[in-house]
Amino acid sequence: MPPRDAGGPLSEIEEVARLTLDSYQRSAQRFWEGTRDHDVSQNLDALLHEISGEPPFRVLDFGCGPGRDLLALRERGHAPVGLDGAEAFVAMARELSGVEVWHQDFLSLRLPDAAFDGVFANASLFHVPLSALPRVLEEIRRCLRAGGVLFASNPRGQNEGGWNHDRYGVYHDFDQWRRLVLGAGFEEIRHYYRPQGLPREQQPWLATLWRRPERSQSDSARSTPASIRS
Description:
The chain is of the alpha/beta class. The chain is built from nine helices and nine strands.
């Protein structure tokens, strides 16, 4: 069994991902029946509000599951693309939404550069072990166009990692999550807690919004002649 923070070598965190995906694969239909009616319109509204430019927007649903939010984005007139590591979810999402869905493990992403106006990561990134999260966040940043927006919602905690039945998760508080996302090169927009209208102790979900800078430091370094950089 992996250690509590799953911070070991790559083969170890790959095993964490495999076991978590196996759990979703086995329970895909039950998961769909339990989440199909969840209302996350507040989160979709938050992402779409922060994206600049004229719609329709190209949005990557990162960890799309059976496709509920892909369908909602398509029905709003946008151009979503799904991504999930569970093969059963990929098939379900394609059938439900009728849009393109990629089968990719979060630890082995193959994302195009600057391809999306927004990334919608609703209840997905907390499954990434802490040691792999900076790399995953950087890959998400690179797939956004300059000025593009990342929405992420995760169950919050006291920065502990561990198993919830047979699925691994890391439960960040806001300060740790903020350090990680800023460290991946994003700019902070805002955050809120869910469900709305309840006392904070009854709001287990932390929702955050971030922007890829119009011009990052790494972009500036690449465009500066080597003779000047040295």
